[in-house]
Amino acid sequence: MIPSESPADPTDPSQQGEYPTHDPPKSNLSFDPLLTSSEKVELEDWIASAEYENNLLKKNGETDYYSILSIPRNADDEEIREAYRKKSRLFHPDKHSNSNVKEWASSQFQLIQAAYEVLINPIQRAAYDAVGEKGLASDMEIGSRFMSKHEIRQEFERKARLEKEKDIASLVNSKSEIVLGLNVSVLTSASLGELLLQRGVRIKPLNTFQDMYNVIQRQQLSTKHKFVIPLGNTLNASISGMANFKGKSGVGNIGLGLSHSSAPGVTTEVSMPILFPQTATIKRSAQINSGSFYNLEATAHSLSLETPPSITATYGQLVSRNLTGFLSVRTGNRYYIGEFWKNSPTRVDKAQSEDSNNPNKNIQDRRGKPAPVRNFPKDYSSVTFGVAGQLISDVQCNISSTFSVPQQQVGFHLTKQIDSTFSVDCGLTFAFASHELESYVPIDPRRELDEFEIPRETGLHAIALHVGGDMSITEFEQLGYKLEFGLNSTMTFSLKYSRLGQIFSLPLMISPVFDLDCLFYFLLLPTAFAAGINYFVTKPKKLARLKQRMLDLENEIMQSYTLKKKNSEHIIKLLSPTCDQKLANESAKNGLVINRAFYGDVAHLFDLSKDNSSAKFELSNSDKVRAIDVKVILMALVNDSQLVIPANKSGLQSIVGFYNPLISSLTSNFDKDSLLARNTDGFFTAKTVSGIVNHIGLIMDSLPKISSVLSSSPSNSFDISSNRETVVQQITKIRPQLFIEYTFKNKLHRAIIDDFSSIMIPLEGTVFTYTI
Question: Can you give the residue ranges of the J domain (predicted)?
Fold first, then answer.
């Protein structure tokens, strides 16, 4: 319960008499422009959030038993009984003589009785709290009836989760990836043929498909698969397998892992392969707050700690509204502590591994043959820092620099979202290599390989570029392509198809050197093909679906609004006799008498009421679209000179008979049939979309705050004026409030109550007080 904003200026004509307008700023342009691609992307994300919010409202808001009894969700049994007693007495059919009112009161009484029966029963209440109304009709067996309320709720949640897992196979969380690398340069690169001719090698003519197939070389074949097994609310087990083949050699392994989420945004994972070579990896990631995070990873390349573990630490922090800076430090596995790991296999030359100090020298296998010496990967230490995020408009960037002893590189990566189904990306990487000076003669030939005092020279090693794109085929399927080329690097064209966690990649080496013809055919043609498919097929279908989703959502909201409005009219008729009776009783004992109560856009009423002589005691016709008179409802709920209504997740609209009148004022002024008849380009204009989005957005902001749609979704700037305001800013200004004026012990009180605040009247401290 809060006072209103600072008092309005009484000399301002815009604040006298009528309600201030909250329409979006009007454009100076005479035409209604189409939405840009980036605005369509934002619109689609916003509508998806609104649909999700609306589904939650239907699930949790339409039959909210707590709202029916006007009690908080943590109410005890005594509070439930008291609320039921008051509500049932108010809506009992026998208390009403009018047949229409009596019939409607009977339906409300049945709802009140159903709510009481569910909430007073600890088992049914736990089922309702856990899974909603469907839990009441469930045949779940939850164990002993002597369990506590908390245990009952936990058991229902567990049962509900198991039922969901049976119905939805996706909860297995299976992920797989297949990569098949091929060398097709003999078929695609004219430059390769010229190089071979210069060296006296002539390529046999390829006349048949069999000849072409025979010259294709397999460079790489790798597969990965992982699925997750839930072991509890916070603990998951995972089984993963991988195989990698290059040339005639291959490796494979199976891994086991455990993942534990100790808190939202905090995850710890331990994994280890079963087969040789055995390693162990520990990962921990944590979201410190909304603007920072850290990741830690440690990998032991040998369970006996023959080599030092590689440790990587990454910290990220918001550096601006849309950019995140990050710093990553990697130790590698070539460091040592004192004498420990000083002679590890990752620190000495191969020649040194043959000396007498090598512990593996005399080791033999079961057949009596010398055991193979394991080759450990040499991982150099490095430092990486950079920024990532939204650079401008709908362009995402990732800029990073990596520094290590053997190599340094600087990379730039940009992604441009063309529309909601198609994006293009490009990148540029400069790689530098460090070489030991030839003139350097070491004092000790058995020196350590990572001596930083060794003089080195650094030179440009390679420049690599990549250009590609990603296209959404359906809601769950994506197709991507990428061409990589540069100086001192091969040309590779990659295709990637992904669907619900399953990924197939096909990298093709099309030329060992830069080839202009390959650049043309494998860049321009795929881009033109993808853009054409997106523009003429995918995009029109998706926009048509989005258009229908918007109209269906607004129509559903308006139907709900109409029903609530009619319901409020019935309730006022029903409560009028009770209101008159309580008004007479409270007046006789100088108790709580509500003179006026309006719900909606009431800020100007609060300002005008400072002057008692000019106060408006009833709404004008123009006011009724922005505020409703709720005096009868609130007066009927007064008991013993008190009006106490606890805050509810649905706000003040949880009070019986309350609804948001501002909904109708933002309804788009378009005929729905004409909108359906328009093509997609004619529909997605700034004026049309702004009206619908404003309307839907108001509902999502004013009704139960189950999820923060408007605060977390992208800014929907569908207004085209130079003084642009986002939809979020426009809606926030007109959130409904309750204006109430009452007398208590010969004193007049006035106040404004926020939509999600509790009502506790009479107030100990008031905003304005007048002695009568």
Answer: 64-132
Packing angle, helices 686-702 and 539-588, rounded to 10: 40
For the stretch 425-478, pLDDT in tens is: 999 999 988 765 555 555 555 555 445 555 566 778 889 999 999 988 877 789
Whole-model pTM above 0.70? no
Task: Please give the C-alpha separations between residue 546 and each of 44, 271, 532, in angstroms, as whole numbers.
Answer: 7, 43, 20
**Residue ranges of domains in the chain:** 33-62+662-735, 589-661+736-772
Stated as kind and residue range, the H or E segment containing 734 is none
pLDDT tens digits for 179-202?
Answer: 999 999 988 888 888 888 788 777
Strand bridging mode 593-600 / 737-743: antiparallel
Give the Cα separation of 442 and 440 in Å (integer). Answer: 6
Can the peptide bond before residue 277 be classed as cis, meaning omega within 30 degrees of 0?
yes
User: Which DSSP state fits 654?
Assistant: G
Q: Are strands 395-404 and 407-419 parallel, antiparallel or unpaired?
A: antiparallel
- Evaluated on CA atoms 510, 514, 518, 523, the torsion sign reads positive
Query: Tell me, what DSSP letter sits at residue 34?
Result: B
Q: Where are the beta strands (DSSP E) in 630-729?
A: 643-645
Within 61-121, residue ranges assigned H as helices are 65-69, 77-91, 99-120
Query: Which amino acid, residue 146?
Result: F
Say which range, 45-54, 350-359, 493-502, has the weakest mean pLDDT. 350-359
Phi-psi region of 597 (alpha: psi -120 to 50; beta: other; left: phi over 0): beta
Q: Is 471 left (phi over 0), alpha (psi -120 to 50) or beta?
A: beta
Report in angstroms the alpha-carbon separations of 754 from 11, 439, 615, 660, 735.
Answer: 27, 79, 21, 13, 9
Establish how many alpha carbons lie within 13 A of residue 132's alpha carbon, considering only the half-sphere containing its beta carbon: 11
